[in-house]
Design brief:
499 residues, alpha/beta, Udp-n-acetylmuramoylalanyl-d-glutamate--2,6- Diaminopimelate Ligase, Chain: A, domain 1, UDP-N-acetylmuramoyl-L-alanine:D-glutamate ligase, Protein-Tyrosine Phosphatase, Chain A, six-stranded mixed sheet
Amino acid sequence: MVTSCSELFEGLDHTVLGSESEEVSGLAYNSAAVRPGDAFFCIVGLNVDGHSFAQDAIDHGAKVIVAERKVYLADATDVTEIIVSDTRKAMAHAAARFYGSPSHDLSLVGITGTNGKTTTTYLVEQIAQAAGRRSGVIGTVGIRVGDDTVKATHTTPESPDLQATFARMRDAQASVVAMEVSSHALDLLRTWGTRFEVTAFSNLTQDHLDYHRTFEAYFEAKALLFSKDYPAKRVICIDDKWGAELLRRCSAHDDNVISTGFDPSAQIHPVSVEYGPASTTVELDVRGSRVGFTYPLVGKFNVSNVMLAFGIGLQLGIPATNIARALEEAPQIPGRLERVHAQADGGVSVFVDYAHTPDALAKALGSIRQITRGRTIVVFGCGGDRDAAKRSIMGREALKADFAVVTSDNPRTENPQAIIDDIVSGMGDAAQGSFTVEPDRRRAIACAIAHAEPGDAVLVAGKGHEDYQLVAGQVLSFDDRVVAREELERAFGSRPSEA
């Protein structure tokens, strides 16, 4: 695939130093990954300025440098420089053009919010497939079209990777693609130049304040997906004030909006809900009509996810009865209240969930309490090099369990004990005896299982589908689901399981 600079940057304000007819055979934003013939984009990051790597990119074969200022190079022979006001926007614009604007050939659904994005993408995929539409998913768990799945390094990939993914999905004849859209991606313009058919909002709770600094800035980043830059049909959960504000804004612009939520004013809201240990039965009011069905997911928060997915299905033109029938066969979402099955469990239920925010932890605990006749025990920690302000709040939320084991999550470059100390600071002296600290995550899971009795449930929270731990710059193999299964069998394998 080869494209000229004039084609790549058509419609974008830019200045050319060199030849606008220079041909580009690839796009790069990491100088080490440049291949001969690539255009290299000098991205200004939080810690590193890509302009400093322009010469390295040329040494690797870049023929075009896209920058926000003239770059003075030791060897600029036959190198074309494209000067733009924002290299991130230019990269997204060029990526969309390089791959032939692939999002225009897809029914693309963008889902944003703090919690519920992954589950909702899987539910939308199920709805689309049941309607006979080949589908794809892009998000935290990975990138999938049909049976082809690859791991993801970001919830929402950088713009050249994202547009390349859209192109692969288009070429694989995908029709509907459900995509998680993170606040970082919106703020960093990774989705710029992408056309969405539907954009959806789940909720906003504390997370990523290390990056956004304030709730208001975090919300405004999410709200970009509902701005004039991303015209689309909308689905908005209005159960928090942020969703209500989005609904107000979209209604003021006469957007096509379906509101969802437990709030009876929502166009899709529950009339009745029956929570079971392995499934949930709902009767929904869907814009004045009653639709009842049972689906194999548990918890109140999944009712919210199901309603959001239902609204998205309607906006995709799928009849309500077909959507309900599809949701009855909803898949288990990897690492989202995923039950751990072991040959011997001693009558103890173990669930693994990605809950890594205070709200998500509270909702996961609440859901497990609804389906457990015994006590609820939680194992959890907090990630390093991330929003430290939520740690003490996570500690307080964990006390809603009957017993908590505070452990290490992904400490990254931080001291694991320092993170644990931050968590415990929110638990208070009065909570002594209702929690313990075990920095080793495997031993923490074993401790929780040893503390459990028949009829109890253990929630292992924070990492969900992840099969690794990030510790001091190392990537260690660690899967909560595998470890929990091993520890269950170690604890109960020598004696009969109890009902």
